[in-house]
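Render this sequence as a predicted structure.
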Amino acid sequence: MKKLTKYFVFLSLTAISIWLLISFLPDIIGNEAVPPSTETEVKEEEQNDEEYIKAITIDKDTSEHIIRVSDAKYLNIPYDVDKKAGVSIRRVFTGRRINIAVIGVDSRLGSRYKHADANHILSILVEQGKIEITSIPRDTPADAGFDDTTGQNKLTVMYASRGRKAYFEEVANIAGLDRIHYYAEIGFSQAMGILEWFGYNDPGSTLQILRSRTGLGGDDYQRVYNQAQFIKQVILKHFDKFSGLFGKLILRGGLLFIETNLRAENAELIYEQLRLANFLKSPDDIEIRIRPPVPIDYKIYDFSDKQVLMALESKIRGYNSKKNENTSLSEYDQIIIDKLDKVLNNAILDSLNKPNSVINTLKVYFDQRAWMQIQDKDLRRYYRDEIGNLLIDAYEKRKQSALANRVREVIEAEKILFGEKNNNF
């Protein structure tokens, strides 16, 4: 029982760290200074672009869209309603506004081409002790550099085709913000690991719920709202638990687990500033904004309720079965294992005298943390260590000790995050 209690505490603390690193950890003392805002605390109303709303919704007009999304017959699952997230009213505060782009990327295993599947901006209002989560649907029109007839000029494609700088400028413009200061990029495998840190027994199913659009009877706007609401609920649940040396250790490991320009040494400072500003004196200290604004009734699901998760998963499974898209976990595991076996065998053949080929073959899988998609934890560790050892050897042969040490550092940090006892890599 004592071991189970310790493990539960560990999971709770690890949960806090990952959301802190994507929502509370801007580098305020790094090379780039965050300028203080000159805004005042006022409310600013804008007109909704009705023609735009009609163009991006699948129904004939906005009123039909509102009915379709909020009609209870589509989901026999308890939920509250948020009527404010899609309305173009913004609270503006005096003080520093630190904007962090949180990007969930969608790329095939082993592919370097990344679409921006989830697009969120977390604005940290340090002095005010508040957070705004601005969420933008993936198919929002954006100049991705293609001919208008291709249908590819979308935000999700823009991230891959034009790079981060252009993407940051675009999402800041859509969100009505001056700029993006920092980013955190999370891939599919990393998201699986994050959900496991939260203590979800079936992270694959939970991730499927958060990624689903049509499977839940909604659309991309409800989907991004679900993701934002999930972030909010995690912060509400775990913020007060983050403290001490162990929290710092978990934070460092979390930062190494994803791709980000946030630095671990600033995490405690930001946390303390928010705490001193009496952050979370009310759940309203975290506000969700959907942009471009589409004024529908957004459903609020309790993602901490196992019964709600099971019901949502059942709905998605039923939808997928009608489309013949269901794949069992064992089948999915075997697909990942076969893929990793193939690339490992090729890298082993090259390991004697072709270090460049080893790196070119394995680096993308290492950066993706591809092993996290395997359910069996022993197999997961095996593939991680095999990929890591081959990369370390290849970097050492190229006299790139710093890169070799980086691989070691990432693996050691992951072992700490997941409570592995034998840290002898």
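Summary. The two ends are 30 Å apart (CA to CA). The longest strand covers residues 95-106.
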